[in-house]
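Human: We require from you a standard protein entry with sequence in single-letter code and fold as tokens, and nothing else.

Assistant:
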Amino acid sequence: MNKVKVGFFSFTEITDPGEHRSYNEWHQLDHMPEQYPLPGMAFGQRWVSTPECRAARVVDGELLAPIHYVTLYLMTEPVTVTLEAFHALGGELRKLGRFHQHRRAWLSGPFAVDVIDAAPRVLISAEAVPYRPNRGAYIVVEDLPPGARADGDVNVPTLLETPGVAGVWSFVSDQERHLAWRPGRRRITVCFLDESPMAVAPRLGDVVGGWRPDADAVVHAGPLEAVVPWQWDWFDQS
């Protein structure tokens, strides 16, 4: 039984090109640590869409084209209490001046955990995949059309057969729990990578377009690197 019930995502653009280092310092050393004392907060990680990662996107729809970072928080029961505390903490930190101003979230909100699996070679359980160190992620976002099932369409076995993919978790928007957020009717699939994201990206790019008949539902697909503390120089030359 997976104790994690919800993944809270934020797909974020840094609106001032000179603020990337400041944003990363704030998020990793101030903002993210403050989330862990909340009830039901199990884990958090961020990935960066470096200039090389951006160029390797196979789908780059208008909604998420500007984003530089993806944050994922994993939440357990009590989910409603956790989300309320998470939202309240954000407001409190804003009042204290501890919120980065040069950022914009293009898609954010809670998504219910759907399908989870691990590649047999990694030996660990599917439930443990997010906690295993990764070198990055390949993230696919779908806008689910009317009448489409919200679960069961992701070709997880093919993703897991791809060298460099350690495990896959998919999430679907939970309309009853979004509170102040409007995630829409979407699915997010995260492939956790233990090889270089740029090496795995071409392999997964070939998989993504064929996993469902309505390929137009995919609005974003591409690799991201894991954010490493104090190694925040990807955009310094931008």
Remarks:
- The mean pLDDT is 91.
- The longest strand covers residues 103-118.
- Residues 4-226 form a domain with the Alpha-Beta Plaits fold (CATH 3.30.70.100).
